[in-house]
Automatic annotation (TrEMBL):
The EC number(s) this enzyme carries: 3.1.26.5
Protein name: Ribonuclease P protein component
InterPro entries named in the record: Ribosomal_Su5_D2-typ_SF, Ribsml_uS5_D2-typ_fold_subgr, RNase_P, RNase_P_CS
Any one of the GO BP annotations: tRNA 5'-leader removal
Species whose genome carries this gene: Aliishimia ponticola
Family, similarity comment: Belongs to the RnpA family.
Gene3D superfamilies for the chain: 3.30.230.10
Record has Nuclease as a keyword: yes
Reaction it catalyzes: Endonucleolytic cleavage of RNA, removing 5'-extranucleotides from tRNA precursor
Superkingdom of the source species: Bacteria
Keywords, sorted A to Z: Endonuclease, Hydrolase, Nuclease, RNA-binding, tRNA processing
Length: 123
């Protein structure tokens, strides 16, 4: 697990100037939902090409009540935020929106290194 995190952290240094921001508006989430969906064992990834001049990578996170109670949902979202922080600056495409959706009982329990690999493969 450690070497996967180190590999992701090392790879993010050259592209650290590439901005990554968080989606907050419902309309952005709805537009991303109309984009491509990539299911993986630990989460679902929605990808949308904004087709604008803004090179920023934008990312959003969501977990429904199916994931569990508030504690389980928050844990799942923390894990999704961390894999996005490690992987998107390196493997994400500029001008794209990404939404990571937590899965019931999978997002909180799947091994972290496997979730990193899942996100890299989904991109």
């Amino acid at each position: 697990m450690h070497d996967v995190q180190a590999e992701a952290a090392e790879g993010s240094a050259p592209l650290a100037a590439l901005p990554v921001s968080v989606l907050r508006n419902r309309s952005d989430f709805l537009r991303a939902a109309r984009g491509r969906k990539v299911p993986s064992p630990g989460f679902i990834l929605q990808i949308r090409n904004r087709r604008d001049d803004d090179p920023a990578i934008r990312v959003g996170f969501t977990c429904s009540k199916k994931v569990g109670n508030a504690v389980a949902r928050n844990r799942a979202k923390r894990r999704l935020r961390e894999i996005a922080r490690l992987v998107l600056p390196v493997h994400g495409k500029p001008g794209h929106d990404y939404v990571l959706i937590g899965r019931a009982e999978k997002t909180a329990t799947r091994p972290f290194d496997q979730m990193l690999r899942d996100l890299k493969a989904a991109l």
